[in-house]
C-alpha cells in the first residue's frame, strides 16, 4: 500500500473530535445531528455492528432554547431504583440543577435501539459554558454547524450601529414618559 493510501486509511479509521456550540439551539432537533457523528454515520466504513464513531464536544449547554412553553411542559423521568423512587422533573428545574443533563438525555433518547448506546455516550463531552479544558480543545479538528443562526443580542450592538438604525420617531430632548 502506498503512503498516501495508508494515510487515507488512518484518517478513515481515526476517531476525530468535533465541536458543537449549543447557544440558542433546540437539543431535541440537534440530537439527530450529534448522533450522526457519535455513531460514525458520516464515515464510509459505517456498519451498525462496528463502533467507528467520533468524539463530540458540546459547549454552552447552559444557553439552549426550547420553543414556546416547552420549558414548563416538558418533564424528564428519573428512577432511583428503590420502591417509590420514580420522579418527574420539569425541564427548567433539571436545567437549573445540571445544565448539561437536558442535552445528554436528548441525545441518549434519540439513539434508542442502538446496541452500543452506553459506549457511544462516553464519547459525548458536554460543558455548560465556553470553558472547555485546553487538552480537549487541542484534539478538536472539526466544527459542526448549528441548525439555527445565533441571533445578535441588543447589548452586542455598538453605539454607532444603534445611531445608524432607522428611527420611526425622534423624541425631543425634554420629553418625559408619564406614569
Automatic annotation (TrEMBL):
It comes from the Eukaryota. SUPFAM superfamilies: Ribosomal protein L13. GO terms for cellular component: mitochondrial large ribosomal subunit. HAMAP family: Ribosomal_uL13. GO terms for biological process: negative regulation of translation; translation. Belongs to the universal ribosomal protein uL13 family. Signal peptide: none annotated. The keyword Cell membrane does not apply. It comes from Sipha flava (yellow sugarcane aphid). InterPro entries: Ribosomal_uL13 (IPR005822), Ribosomal_uL13_bac-type (IPR005823), Ribosomal_uL13_sf (IPR036899). This is 39S ribosomal protein L13. Keywords: Ribonucleoprotein, Ribosomal protein. The keyword Heme does not apply. GO terms for molecular function: mRNA binding; structural constituent of ribosome. It holds the Pfam family Ribosomal_L13.
